[in-house]
Amino acid sequence: MDNNLLEKVVSLCKRRGFIFPGSEIYGGLRGTWDYGPLGTELKFNLKQSWWEYMVQDRENVFGMNASIMMNPKVWEASGHVASFTDPLVECKTCHERFRADKAEDIKEHEQTHAKKKEKVEWTEPKQFNILVEAKLGVVEGEKTTVFLRGEITQGVHVNFKNVLDSMRPKIPFGIAQIGKAFRNEITPRNFIFRSREFEQMEMQTYVKPNEKEAMGMFNEMKDLRMKWYLDLGIKKSKLRFREHAPDERAHYAQAAWDIEYETPWGWDEAEGIHHRGDWDLSRHSEFSGQDLSYFDSETNERFIPWVIETSGGVDRALLFFLLNAYYEEKDRLILKLHPKLAPYKAAVFPLLANKPQLIEKARRILKDLKRTGLNVAWDDRGNIGKRYYSQDEIGTPYCITVDFQTLEDDTVTVRDRDTAKQERLPIGELSKFIQKVLLLDN
Ligand SMILES: [Zn+2]
């Protein structure tokens, strides 16, 4: 394992416009990151790929987009107000706080003091709620405290009845959502892996309340979610399932597994698959006084469905795709991103920047490719070799060069990012050639 891999990826992200430290010109804001031009494209592609895979390509699955700010009662019902807490200890010397259950962070902090020949004394662990508070309202003194959602899950469950009434789904059915969540993380770390503002992608599947149905769906979801990472190019050896130990599971969880990725800092969570039973809908039924049951017209039964959840982090998945794609060769750096994820699907170059016929021809190819829905880059700076390397670094799968032969026979050279091999293709075949590699075989 390359110990510097994370640093290299962080530095590439900054240098090439993927991800910047949040509020950087003001000295930053700990635990926040800003996505730059290429990072925004990559993140957009990642979310779109998840949405197609989980929602649009499957039957009986519906999308949702709930508010980030919700009625505070939501978080009482979900249990977050009472128990969304981390045990914290405070260093008595510098008053910095750490999670009591993160031994490596504590050791690291003790070492920084040890270097200055200081000994660290810790306070007893105290519970600290990690929901982020905000004040809502216009009149000072009459403002309501709301929470920025600590997870996106609840926005789906509180709309269960709305989706039932408007879409009339037949059980089993899924409701999906992608969106931001906020946590007052004590020790944000490992770049975008753990930050205070992050994005989640989740699927809540409602099933009949029996073990056979629930575990059938649970296993189907486990396989489907693993397959998504593999289909998008993560190496099989870098992924594994891990079952939660009984003491790690939320009290309502009947079964919980993680998909883990082997990061430079060890195996860590990519996403969780949880059997949540009827916890969510029962609690919201109780706290809201609304009937959140489902009527099964086939069996004439009325029941509270059980929930199988898949909950993944958009930012951490994005980090894993970057770590997985980073390659150094003798004379070049390549980001071997799946074409579906790559910010640009191709780049178009005129061989020489001072030949109007070449530029005109290349501009037309660029425009035609864009018109077929492909995000394509333009580069006419420096020599061709440098332009290739520049595109390799940001993961562009193909470089298309317009040369003098193009003016004669309407063919161009197409260079493959991973093999650096070139072939000649008719201009008319370019779009189809690129579209083909964007398909996922699910
Ligand atoms: Zn300290």
Automatic annotation (TrEMBL):
Query: What does UniProt give as GO cellular component?
Result: cytoplasm; extracellular exosome; microvesicle
Classify the source by domain of life.
Bacteria
Q: Which GO terms describe its molecular function?
A: ATP binding; bis(5'-nucleosyl)-tetraphosphatase (asymmetrical) activity; glycine-tRNA ligase activity
Broad enzyme group: ligase
EC number of this enzyme:
6.1.1.14
Key words, A-Z: Aminoacyl-tRNA synthetase, ATP-binding, Cytoplasm, Ligase, Nucleotide-binding, Protein biosynthesis
The UniProt entry, under CDD domains, shows: GlyRS-like_core (cd00774), GlyRS_anticodon (cd00858)
One GO BP annotation is: diadenosine tetraphosphate biosynthetic process
What family does the entry list? Belongs to the class-II aminoacyl-tRNA synthetase family.
Which PANTHER family does this UniProt record tie to the protein? DNA POLYMERASE SUBUNIT GAMMA-2, MITOCHONDRIAL, GLYCYL-TRNA SYNTHETASE/DNA POLYMERASE SUBUNIT GAMMA-2
Protein name in the entry = glycine--tRNA ligase
Source species? Candidatus Yanofskybacteria bacterium RIFCSPHIGHO2_01_FULL_41_53
